[in-house]
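TICKET: design request
STATUS: open
ATTACHED STRUCTURE:
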């Protein structure tokens, strides 16, 4: 399947899933409070810690009876499988950062899984449904692109130096620096390929995000404080 056709399908699907009433507030009335956050990240940049702390902070402000703020990363895969009645073993075939181009092509050639487009379509559909429910933080899987026309979603990217990120991965996974560096580079390549192949975008393009944070220089607490302010006030607040 060519990139052009696949990309056109992605855009067509995403656009048809979002009705004007869902994504456009009345003219002159930007959203006062956001309903979702997407986080694109370089491996080892602290996305999980930031997402978890942000969800806790936002939940503390939430009115009783409202849907709790929830982080979706690995859980998103489970949700996709449940929503579309895939067997649990299919989880290994919803990669974002592991499979190589060759593995991807071979598995489709021999029908070892549903076509890539089917997986991406269902994943996108699930993300759109979660955002419509509200109070969600989506990590990865091009969530910022899937929900790009919705003004009630905040998009951020987390980056950092290779050295700092490698050290974090080595500590968190209890592996050597060499193994951590190899994992970091493999995951970063995989995520960039995922966004490029299925959505036709460069994951590092700053125009895809409201803000990019260098977590070498900005602490987790500071990032969470800033994001809490943006979510509560809306990215367009003065």
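STATUS: resolved
RESOLUTION: sequence designed for all positions
ATTACHED SEQUENCE:
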């Amino acid at each position: 399947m060519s990139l052009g056709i696949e990309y056109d399908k992605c855009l067509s699907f995403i656009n048809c899933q979002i009705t004007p009433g869902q994504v456009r507030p009345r003219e002159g009335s930007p959203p006062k409070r956001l309903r979702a956050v997407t986080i694109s990240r370089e491996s080892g940049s602290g996305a999980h810690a930031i997402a978890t702390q942000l969800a806790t902070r936002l939940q503390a402000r939430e009115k009783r009876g409202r849907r709790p703020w929830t982080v979706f990363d690995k859980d998103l895969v489970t949700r996709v499988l449940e929503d579309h009645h895939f067997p649990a073993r299919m989880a290994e075939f919803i990669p974002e950062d592991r499979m190589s181009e060759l593995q991807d092509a071979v598995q489709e050639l021999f029908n070892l899984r549903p076509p890539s487009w089917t997986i991406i379509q269902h994943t996108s559909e699930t993300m759109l449904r979660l955002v419509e429910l509200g109070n969600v933080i989506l990590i990865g899987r091009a969530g910022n692109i899937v929900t790009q026309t919705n003004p009630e979603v905040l998009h951020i990217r987390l980056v950092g130096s290779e050295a700092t990120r490698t050290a974090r991965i080595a500590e968190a996974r209890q592996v050597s620096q060499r193994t951590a560096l190899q994992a970091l580079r493999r995951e970063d390549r995989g995520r960039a390929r995922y966004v490029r192949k299925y959505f036709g975008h460069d994951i590092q393009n700053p125009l895809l995000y409201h803000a990019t944070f260098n977590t070498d220089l900005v602490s987790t607490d500071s990032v969470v404080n800033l994001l809490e302010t943006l979510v509560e006030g809306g990215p367009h607040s003065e």
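CLOSING REMARK: Residues 1-28 have pLDDT under 50 and may be disordered. Residues 177-199 form the longest helix (23 residues).
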